Fold this protein.
Amino acid sequence: MTKHRTREERRDEILQAAARCFAEKGYYETTMDDIVASAGLSKGTLYWHFDNKKALFHSLIERWWGEILQRFVAVLGEPVRVSEKFRLALRAMDESAAVNPELVRAQVEFLTMALHDDELLEWLRGFYDQSVGFVEAMIQQGVATGEFRDVDARALAQLIVAAVDGGIVQRELLEAHADGPFQWEALADALLKLLENPNHDQ
C-alpha cells in the first residue's frame, strides 16, 4: 500500500528540496518550479504549504535556527561547569553546520539578502536577539557562580555572536583557502580566557 504522508512530512520534503536548490543555484536563481521538480510534488501541493519563495526560504532558516537554539537551551541546563557549557554550545553549532552544509550556505545568503530586504532583516533581528539572549544568560550564569568575572554580559554576548556568525561564513566561503576548518575549540579557549575569574576555586 502507498503510505500517505502527513502534512508535516510533506512540508519536510519541500524544505529539504528547497535547501538543495538554494545551495546549488542560490536564492534568486532558484524558482518554485525547481523546488517542485526536486521534491517530486505538484505545484499545487507546494503552494498549499508555502505562499511564495520568500516564505519557504524563511521557514528553512527558521527551522534550522530553531533546532540549534533548542540544543543551546538543553546545554544551558546541563549539570556541568559553565565553561564546559560554552564548549558544548560551540560544538553543537559546529556539528549542525557539518551535518547541514546546504543550510549553512542558505544562512550565508540570508545574511546578505537581509541588507536589502526589510522583511528579511526583521526576521534576522529576531534570530539575533534569541542568540544573544542565550549567550547572555550563559555568561550571567557563570558570573553568578563566580566562575566568570563580572562583565557586561549583554555587550560580550553580542561580540560572541558576531564571532560565531563570522565562523559560519568562513566555514562556507573560505575553508578551502584558510588553513583548515574554522577552529571552534580555539574560539572557545579564547572566550573562556577572557571570561574566567582568576580568583574562582577550580
Remarks:
- The chain has nine helices and no strands.
- The two ends are 61 Å apart (CA to CA).
